[in-house]
């Protein structure tokens, strides 16, 4: 789909290790189920093993991508970390100005505290603006292309969603409100 934008969290050896462990676990289960199916002569057990062989690694990779995802803009909404916020809840995409060359943070400001998704931990929320919390995720600063991010917002975001840089001095708009044409 056109208008997508994605950036990732800093590399995590732990996330990669868990990906490999999940794949090994799936293959081990597939081998065990296949062996039971062959030894007992039950074709349906072997068919279950085959289904796991096809779907299991894809499941493991999907979890890995969700874990390393920092910000993903699509027609459905904004995925920040592992949480997807629908467009009708999004008010701003916030890029935080931070000291240091490597790390950065991005966030999605929602309209009210009631719109914060279940399961978002308190350390992933910025509540400096009263009544409008921001769901925050860490990302690689050198992978953020503000022009591409603004272009993706213009293509897929509804009107009123802005891209801002937040610093101690306040919010500075980086791109005007998105003005997507109605379909």
Describe the 3D structure.
With 183 residues, this protein is of the alpha+beta class. It folds into 2 domains: 7-68; 70-175, no CATH class. Helices cover 36% and strands 29% of the residues. It has 3 helices and 10 strands. The chain has helices at residues 13-40, 43-68, 146-156, and strands at residues 5-8, 69-73, 77-80, 83-86, 90-96, 103-110, 125-126, 134-140, 162-167, 170-175. The strands form 2 sheets. A 6-stranded mixed β-sheet has the order 7-8-6-5-9-10, with helices on one face. Helix 1 (13-40) runs antiparallel to helix 2. It is elongated, with a radius of gyration of 21 Å. Mean pLDDT is 78; it is low at 178-183.
- Strands of the widest sheet, in order across it, are 7-8-6-5-9-10
Estimated helix fraction: 25-40%
Average pLDDT = 78
Uncertain ranges: 178-183
β-strand amount: 25-35%
Class per helix and strand makeup: alpha+beta
Oligomer: single chain
E-strand count: 10
Radius of gyration: 21 Å
Overall 3D geometry? elongated
The number of distinct structural domains comes to 2
| Head-to-tail CA distance between termini | 15 Å
Spell out the helices and strands N to C.
EHHEEEEEEEHEE
Describe the protein's topology.
Layout: E1 5-8, H1 13-40, H2 43-68, E2 69-73, E3 77-80, E4 83-86, E5 90-96, E6 103-110, E7 125-126, E8 134-140, H3 146-156, E9 162-167, E10 170-175
Parallel strand pairs: 5-9
Antiparallel strand pairs: 1-2, 2-3, 3-4, 5-6, 6-8, 7-8, 9-10
Quick structural summary:
The chain is α+β, with helices and mostly antiparallel strands. 36% of the residues lie in helices and 29% in strands.
């Amino acid at each position: 789909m056109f208008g997508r934008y994605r950036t990732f969290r800093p590399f995590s050896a732990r996330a990669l290790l868990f990906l490999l462990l999940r794949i090994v676990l799936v293959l081990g289960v597939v081998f065990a189920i296949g062996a039971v199916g062959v030894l007992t002569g039950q074709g349906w057990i072997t068919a279950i093993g085959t289904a796991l062989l096809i779907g299991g690694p894809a499941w493991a990779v999907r979890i890995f991508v969700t874990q390393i995802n920092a910000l993903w803009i699509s027609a459905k909404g904004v995925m920040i970390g592992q949480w997807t916020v629908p467009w009708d809840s999004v008010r701003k995409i916030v890029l935080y100005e931070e000291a240091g060359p490597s790390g950065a943070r991005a966030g999605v400001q929602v309209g009210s505290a009631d719109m914060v998704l279940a399961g978002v931990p308190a350390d992933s929320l910025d509540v400096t603006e009263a009544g409008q919390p921001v769901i925050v995720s860490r990302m690689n600063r050198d992978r953020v292309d503000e022009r591409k991010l603004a272009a993706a917002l213009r293509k897929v975001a509804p009107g009123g969603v802005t891209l801002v840089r937040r610093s101690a001095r306040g919010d500075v708009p980086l791109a005007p409100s998105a003005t997507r044409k109605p379909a």
